[in-house]
Amino acid sequence: MTETVYDLRSALARLAAMDGELVSTDTEVDPHAELSGVYRYVGAAGTTRRPTREGPAMLFNRVKGFADFRVVTGVLASRRRVGALLGCEPDRLGHLLMNSVKNPLPPVLTQSAHIPCQEVVHLASEPGFDIRTLLPAPTNTEEDAGPYFTMGLCYATDPETGESDITIHRLCMQGPDELSMYFAPGRHLDVFRAKAEAAGNALPITISLGVDPAIYVGACFEPPTTPLGFDELNIAGALRGKAVELAQGIAVNARAIAHAEVVIEGELMPEVRYREDRNTNTGKAMPEFPGYTGPANPSLPVIKVKAVTHRRHPILQHTIGCSEEHVNMAGIPTEASILGMVERAMPGRLLNVFAHSSGGGKLMAVMQFKKSIPADEGRQRQAALLAFAAFPELKHVMLVDEDVDIFDSNDVLWAMQTRYQGDVDTVFIPGVRCHPLDPSQIPEYSPSIAAKGIACKTIFDCTVPYALKSHFQRCEFKEVDVRRFLPDFHY
CB–CB of 235/190 below 8 Å? Predict the structure, then answer.
């Protein structure tokens, strides 16, 4: 693979050169429910309702109502693909990102006279401007609150400190020049918005769609690994060994990703709120990472769109919220955060982490811990406690020994069946803040839950007690070269 990846198009070129990692269709697709309905079968995987599977990314070359646009989905919906796009073995991606956090490379304002994301400009002040007819934002299901941008990288600056941050938020089309924006509790851009609103000001913001996959993965870190004031574009720069290039907005005082396919420029308006489903009255929002369509929010901040810019013959990037794509974008940074925190506390003990697909990359982590001496007994549970501190939205931790393949769910469940006794190997931590999109985290579910988004965090210790290690040796087989018998066999 010789193609250098620096934007979406070069990423797609790399995937096209690989066997079975990108498919395309020239059959016209309706962005309303049909596009996501197709990809559910082709390669969504994750927590998506069955039948689904892990499969290739998919490029739709003809989108109903949008002659000049293509739509791609599932670019990061395979850990193997993420590894290929970042130049790393899939099982080492958490370590790669951990090292990138340690070696940040800040973004720079482009000095190029040609800015790809501004090849075509549409100003909201122009007659007939309507973002709903300009951009083919898909509707994931027929009961969604409306068309959503699901891969929009929102970039804004703290009005008091001048520090910038980038995160992905769900953005619902509300009118010709309006988007509602959902903030999960604690998001940094919401802090910036609140500061601007308190001063009676709008917050300038850009939304970049269709960028280098390194930017998407790097942008999904959360505190405490990337505290308030840390620009996650630093991580993408470190991943590539080259600073991310930014472009100054045309209509607002904010910057965007220079090589993005599409940029929406706007302002988060003070004291303006919309009901998320005000145009459809479905009562639903859109599919989210736990595999459910949550209720529409009764009141969300609103972005007033000032301009839309894009490349010639643009490609809009989309994801299904409950797909393996969310698992990788959210989960690999989670792994890096846990690895980094535990390594600082007990070097060499935690070998690897997998933010499991069943939790959408957020709710469950499998931790591979090595006990080398008798005094290591119990430290595996300390490591689990550190994991909860490294990623506060984590709900469950499964601890396994070094001989268990954490990326093989059968092997993990085997460890639970043979190395776990519920009465002595389960640790409950009730009443802790977790994630409001998990529908079980509500007072109606359990009397122990005081408010929405609070959970009982649980450690499942499926490691062998150090003193009993000799009783839990896996059977050994003779090492052979299978290719003597099957020349094309791959281990």
Answer: no
* Contact yes or no for 322/47 (Cβ under 8 A): yes
Written as six digits, the tokens of 466 are: 């150090």
Region for residue 348 given its phi and psi (left: phi exceeds 0; alpha: psi -120 to 50; beta: otherwise) = left
288 assigned to active site: yes
| CA gap 261, 247 in Å, rounded | 13
Prediction pTM value? 0.94
Tokens describing residue 216? 């998407």
Mind listing the pLDDT tens digit for each residue in 369-389? 999 999 999 999 999 999 999
Confidence tier at 2 by pLDDT (50, 70, 90):
low
Q: Helix, strand or coil for residue 341? A: helix
Please give the backbone phi and psi of residue 245, each rounded to the nearest 5 degrees, phi first: -90, 135
Whole-angstrom CA distances from 93 to 324, 330, 398, 480 are 15, 12, 19, 29
User: d(Cα 114, Cα 102) in Å, to the nearest integer?
Assistant: 32
Contact 281, 428 (CB under 8 A): no
- Are 62 and 170 in contact by the 8 Å Cβ rule? The answer is no
Q: Which is the catalytic residue, given 178, 265, 288, 325? A: 288
